[in-house]
Specification:
Layout lengths: L8 H5 L3 H9 L16 E4 L2 E6 L11 H14 L14 H14 L3 E5 L2 H12 L5 E5 L4 H10 L2 E5 L4 H11 L6 E6 L11 H11 L2 E5 L14 H4 L8 E5 L9 E5 L1 H10 L1 H4 L6 H15 L1 H23 L8 E2 L5 E2 L3 E7 L1 H13 L2 E6 L9 E6 L6 H22 L7
Parallel strand pairs: 2-13, 4-5, 4-6, 6-7, 7-8
Antiparallel strand pairs: 1-2, 3-9, 8-9, 10-11, 12-14, 13-14
Helix pairs in contact: 3-12, 4-12, 5-6, 7-8, 13-15, 14-15
This protein binds pyridoxal-5'-phosphate.
Pyridoxal-5'-phosphate binds next to helix 5.
Length: 420
């Protein structure tokens, strides 16, 4: 008997279909908006110049002549693509140099470059962990971490975002699971821009004999004196077992990396399916990332890290002064505030977030909208982020637009500051 179940039925009935269709009809959909030029502080988008507060180009290096030259040189030397995997026929000396410089930057024995950051998480977690192991992840971790955990078929124990007491309980319970234990957290969380309490996390991992992996996607090229990320800033580099990062944020390119002990990286080199069975990143992406790493590691790096964080502070203060509910910056146990380039505004309701997004867009400011499942239900955010290359005039103009949009919105829909 042939089955009567059509696997395409999901596509026609999925729960968000109605919402997406209505949003598209009202032109409120914040996704797939078309860029007509490079991602710079001000972009050309759908026929209009708009201030870009919705990128991960934290250092503004996508437009840097040296980074573009790095891409061009690689393109000229190796052509448009490598048409094979790193493993079989897609490794160039640029990959090898990049791995060596990244390992040096992180201060680890070794590093392995993947085609994307998503694949790096999949490739590390899906290979190091197996069905008998336990992986403990923060509920705010990036989707690629969750995907890696699922791929591994290890027992997944999630703990409530940044709640150390919950992590401790998960570690206690995991003792009875019978396998190895890996804790995996974002150093800087992608939507809210807050920082993991890594000092407490490393202590707990030690106490319970667990390994720790930190995703530095939003910390690399931003935090710490060397720009090596949240682990450097919080002084725990020597107690973190594996670090992951992507080239698609501060490094202005595309690709991913896992850094850690040489034997573990060697294991991944020969066992990790998301590394071995996919095409190598295009030469231009590797050349650009290498040039960006060199800028970050030069004296100029420090200036760029300081500038992006000063811009984040400025935007945070400006939005707060306008009466927006801006997510508080992380405060460490000793009272120090940790600023990151992500400055999210809490809206709460999905439709309100869509309406505000559109009003900002029409007035010439592009931001990101984070709706469930990227954030908990009822916790919609307008996620803004800055670049080191935004000037104060541009940020002031964006703030003016935010102020005007808020005034008009509140006249119709009520106060944005009341809410859960
Ligand atoms: C925290 C985090 N990890 C991993 C990734 C995946 O990186 P990539 O964009 O290189 O696939 C991202 C990017 O969205 C991220 O924000």
């Amino acid at each position: 008997m042939p089955t009567t179940i059509d696997v395409f039925a999901k596509a026609r009935e999925f729960e968000r279909l109605e919402l997406l269709t209505s949003a598209r009809e009202l032109d409120l959909l914040p996704y797939f908006r078309v860029l007509e030029g490079p991602t710079l502080p001000v972009v050309e988008m759908e026929g209009k110049r708009r201030i870009m507060l919705g990128s991960n180009n934290y250092l503004g290096l996508t437009g840097d002549e040296r980074v573009k030259q790095g891409a061009l040189d690689a393109l000229q030397r190796y052509g448009t693509g490598l048409t094979g995997s790193r493993f079989l026929n897609g490794t160039t000396d640029l990959h090898v140099e990049l791995e060596s410089e990244l390992a040096d930057w992180f201060g680890t024995e070794s590093a392995l470059v993947f085609t994307t950051g998503h694949q790096a998480n999949l490739g590390a977690l899906g290979t190091i962990l197996g069905p008998g192991d336990t992986v403990i992840a923060d509920s705010g971790d990036h989707a690629s971490i969750l995907d890696g955990c699922v791929l591994s078929r290890a027992k997944l124990r999630a703990f409530r975002h940044n709640r150390i007491d919950r992590l401790e309980r998960a570690l206690e319970r995991a003792q009875g699971d019978g396998g190895g234990i890996l804790v995996v957290v974002d150093g800087v969380f992608s939507m809210e821009g807050d920082v993991a309490p890594l000092e407490e996390i490393v202590d707990l991992c030690r106490r319970f004999g667990a390994r720790l992996m930190v995703d530095e996607a939003h910390g690399l090229g931003v935090l710490g004196a060397r720009g090596a990320g949240a682990c450097e800033l919080l002084g725990v580099e020597d107690r973190v077992d594996l670090r992951m990062a992507t080239f698609s944020k501060s490094l202005a390119s595309c690709g991913g990396v896992i850094a850690g002990p040489a034997d573990v990286l060697e294991f991944l080199r020969f066992q990790s399916r998301p590394f071995m069975f996919t095409a190598s990143g295009v030469p231009a992406a590797v050349g650009a990332a290498l040039a960006a790493v060199r800028i970050c590691r030069s004296d100029e790096g420090r200036e760029l890290f300081a500038r992006v964080l000063a811009n984040a502070r400025y935007l945070h203060a400006g939005l707060s002064a306008l009466g927006f509910r801006v997510v508080e910056q992380t405060r460490l146990a000793d009272g120090t505030e940790v600023v990151t380039p992500v400055v999210p505004v809490v809206v709460g309701d999905d439709w309100h977030a869509g309406l505000l997004w559109k009003a900002l867009y029409d007035a010439g400011v592009f931001v990101n909208t984070a709706l469930h499942p990227a954030v908990p239900p009822g916790h919609a955010l307008l996620r803004t982020s800055v670049m080191a290359t935004h000037d104060i005039g541009t940020l002031d103009r964006a703030l003016e637009v935010f102020g005007e949009v808020k005034r008009v919105f509140e006249a119709k829909h009520g106060s944005l500051t009341s809410g859960p």
